[in-house]
Amino acid sequence: DAAVNEELAKLRAQTVRDVLIGLGVPADRVDLQKPAVSTGSGNDAQARRVEVKLVD
User: Fold this and answer.
1) Which of 14, 25, 40, 41 could serve as 47's disulfide partner, Cβ 3.0–4.6 Å?
2) Is 40 within a domain?
């Protein structure tokens, strides 16, 4: 179900955010964004991911 998958993705991203903050990354430097487009090869394992971008 799409709604369930979206909620799981949100929780996954929030968990990564919490870990980064726990490791000392300032909370104001962590920004969660929903992807503009959903990409994937159709492989469920590859679809379960969080992308992290580091910027200066």
Assistant:
1) 40
2) yes
Structure tokens at 46: 């590859």
CA 20, 50, 2, 4 dihedral sign is: negative
DSSP 14: H
Tell whether the model's pLDDT for residue 35 goes beyond 90. Answer: no
Range of the domain at 33: 2-47
Contact 13, 50 (CB under 8 A): yes
What is the token pair recorded at 27? 């909370």
Q: Show Cβ contacts of residue 24 under 8 Å, excluding neighbours closer than 6 positions.
A: none
Number of domains in the chain: 1
Q: Which residues, other chains included, contact 9 with Cβ-Cβ below 8 Å and sequence gap of 6+?
A: 48
Q: Which pLDDT belongs to residue 19? A: 96
